[in-house]
Amino acid sequence: MWEHAEAASALIMFAEHRFYGESWPCGGEDAAMADCLNLLTHEQAMADYVQLLAAYKESLGATGTKESPVIAFGGSYGGMLAAWMRMKYPVTIAGAIAASAPILGFPGLPFYEQNNGEAGCAYSFKNILSILSTQAFLVFDVFTERASHVLFCGIPYAI
């Protein structure tokens, strides 16, 4: 990211998630853990980041989205936040780069539930491995036949 930001004359900002590091609401760690855990949510974290971005852009005099677009990025939980921020705040976040971000892999979401409680890509991959390990002598034939019916990690697969 550093090289790309420099080449694009861009600024990289890393914001601290509330309840981590020095960011303790409600008067500090003890009070926060006792009385304010309801504020430890991804929705609250995203709202914090949007407020931080707005204040920082205002301090630079760069308030327009077109003049100073924001690309959110992250991996794992940070990637989920980046993707969710793009979905929830499209006026603030012009794009997102989300790596290893299972944004649909949670109980209660239809995509998760329809795959027996496993995220879709992992579920598909597990099924393919099961087929291959039980029928190793027919690996290519089985894989070719099954692959035409599988969306592997959301991408149609064809041999």
Chain-wise SSE layout:
Layout: H1 2-7, H2 29-35, H3 42-60, E1 71-75, H4 77-88, E2 95-99, H5 110-113, H6 120-134, H7 139-147, E3 151-152, E4 155-156
Parallel strand pairs: 1-2
Antiparallel strand pairs: 3-4
Helix pairs in contact: 6-7
Mind explaining what this structure looks like?
The chain has 159 residues and is mainly α. It has 2 domains: 2-99, no CATH class; 110-156, no CATH class. Helix content is 45%, strand content 9%. The chain contains 7 helices and 4 strands. The strands form 2 sheets. A two-stranded parallel ribbon has the order 1-2. The protein has a two-stranded antiparallel sheet with strand order 3-4. Strand 1, helix 4 and strand 2 form a beta-alpha-beta unit. Mean pLDDT is 76; it is low at 137-144, 146-152 and 155-159.
Mean pLDDT: 76
Instruction: Work out the radius of gyration.
Output: 21 Å
Number of domain modules: 2
Order of helices and strands: HHHEHEHHHEE
Number of strands: 4
Helical segment tally? 7
* Structural classification: mainly alpha
Low-pLDDT regions = 137-144, 146-152, 155-159
Report the helical percentage.
40-55%
Distance between the termini: 34 Å
Could you describe the largest sheet, including whether it forms a barrel? Answer: 2 strands, parallel
Main sheet: strand order: 1-2
What gross morphology would you assign?
flat
Strand content: 5-15%
Oligomeric state as shown:
single chain
